[in-house]
Amino acid sequence: MAAIDGLPPLREVIATHGLSARKALGQNFILDLNLTARIARSAGQLAQSDVLEVGPGPGGLTRGLLAEGARRVVAVEKDARCLPALAEVAAHYPGRLEVIEGDALTVDLSGRLTPPVRIVANLPYNVGTELLIRWLTPPEWPPFWTSLTLMFQREVAKRITAQAGDDAYGRLAILAQWRAEPRVVLELPPEAFVPPPKVSSAVVHLDALPGPRFPANLRTLERVTAAAFGQRRKMLRASLKGLTPDIEAHLAAVGIPATERAERVSLEAFCALAQSLDGAN
Ligand SMILES: C[S@@+](CC[C@H](N)C(=O)[O-])C[C@H]1O[C@@H](n2cnc3c(N)ncnc32)[C@H](O)[C@@H]1O
């Protein structure tokens, strides 16, 4: 029996195309089309947007995005075995799905997407974190994307949304919250995937801010937070002394106690410290 979008159910697609999940590619598929539709809806205004989907696999989330009205979807998939299944989705939605066989870490997408661009992905966790950092650190801001809606291991989702004082607070929270507005929109148990992974997952949605939340130079902010969180249990006057001999004066200038530890310092205070180190205050 056809699924709600008129295409075959995903279990049938997987059986027809012999898509046994490959661990090396982080393949944990979502086969429930109600769930992929929910994830697609959490990406926001799809009707006016081009969507970059990374890792479409057998096409469950792709179908959700198209059924929910995405203007166009450009999908990058590394596993060539998935291409025939994705071609069937493309035929069902003429002119709206372009599938690129390639590695999301190296593929050239220039000229393929028209703003506003929303990025949506259920990716292997390591690839997802690397891409998130890359999407948050382009040389120019605002970036080419309007929002990111990404599946992560629940622990990583916590690291992205953590506040000063939380155990999970660190460089990822600072970077994500400096340039974007992240929030967890959905939590998923292992059983939501086939095969089930060992850990729970969460979908994080990040809206790009028009400009950084507080002024700071990206490279300086990264240097400061790398040093501070590299030795997160140490007092800042110790963990940051490698940056400049007069670190205590800079800390005092921006009102951060020299005895404070990185995990208790707000994003705003880290930005002020970066500005002070750059002579901008
Ligand atoms: C967790 S599965 C999700 C598949 C599908 N989106 C879903 O929700 O059921 C991850 C997908 O990403 C693909 N993938 C893994 N590494 C990739 C990479 N570097 N570039 C593009 N796709 C990749 C895998 O082949 C797989 O199809």
TrEMBL record:
<dbReference type="InterPro" id="IPR011530">
    <property type="entry name" value="rRNA_adenine_dimethylase"/>
</dbReference>
<dbReference type="InterPro" id="IPR020598">
    <property type="entry name" value="rRNA_Ade_methylase_Trfase_N"/>
</dbReference>
<feature type="binding site">
    <location>
        <position position="77"/>
    </location>
    <ligand>
        <name>S-adenosyl-L-methionine</name>
    </ligand>
</feature>
<dbReference type="Pfam" id="PF00398">
    <property type="entry name" value="RrnaAD"/>
</dbReference>
<keyword id="KW-0489">Methyltransferase</keyword>
<dbReference type="InterPro" id="IPR023165">
    <property type="entry name" value="rRNA_Ade_diMease-like_C"/>
</dbReference>
<feature type="domain" description="Ribosomal RNA adenine methylase transferase N-terminal">
    <location>
        <begin position="35"/>
        <end position="210"/>
    </location>
</feature>
<dbReference type="InterPro" id="IPR001737">
    <property type="entry name" value="KsgA/Erm"/>
</dbReference>
<feature type="binding site">
    <location>
        <position position="30"/>
    </location>
    <ligand>
        <name>S-adenosyl-L-methionine</name>
    </ligand>
</feature>
<protein>
    <recommendedName>
        <fullName>Ribosomal RNA small subunit methyltransferase A</fullName>
        <ecNumber>2.1.1.182</ecNumber>
    </recommendedName>
</protein>
<dbReference type="GO" id="GO:0003723">
    <property type="term" value="F:RNA binding"/>
</dbReference>
<comment type="function">
    <text>Specifically dimethylates two adjacent adenosines (A1518 and A1519) in the loop of a conserved hairpin near the 3'-end of 16S rRNA in the 30S particle. May play a critical role in biogenesis of 30S subunits.</text>
</comment>
<keyword id="KW-0949">S-adenosyl-L-methionine</keyword>
<keyword id="KW-0694">RNA-binding</keyword>
<feature type="binding site">
    <location>
        <position position="28"/>
    </location>
    <ligand>
        <name>S-adenosyl-L-methionine</name>
    </ligand>
</feature>
<feature type="binding site">
    <location>
        <position position="122"/>
    </location>
    <ligand>
        <name>S-adenosyl-L-methionine</name>
    </ligand>
</feature>
<dbReference type="GO" id="GO:0052908">
    <property type="term" value="F:16S rRNA (adenine(1518)-N(6)/adenine(1519)-N(6))-dimethyltransferase activity"/>
</dbReference>
<dbReference type="GO" id="GO:0005829">
    <property type="term" value="C:cytosol"/>
</dbReference>
<keyword id="KW-0808">Transferase</keyword>
<dbReference type="InterPro" id="IPR020596">
    <property type="entry name" value="rRNA_Ade_Mease_Trfase_CS"/>
</dbReference>
<dbReference type="InterPro" id="IPR029063">
    <property type="entry name" value="SAM-dependent_MTases_sf"/>
</dbReference>
<keyword id="KW-0963">Cytoplasm</keyword>
<feature type="binding site">
    <location>
        <position position="55"/>
    </location>
    <ligand>
        <name>S-adenosyl-L-methionine</name>
    </ligand>
</feature>
<feature type="binding site">
    <location>
        <position position="103"/>
    </location>
    <ligand>
        <name>S-adenosyl-L-methionine</name>
    </ligand>
</feature>
<keyword id="KW-0698">rRNA processing</keyword>
<comment type="similarity">
    <text>Belongs to the class I-like SAM-binding methyltransferase superfamily. rRNA adenine N(6)-methyltransferase family. RsmA subfamily.</text>
</comment>
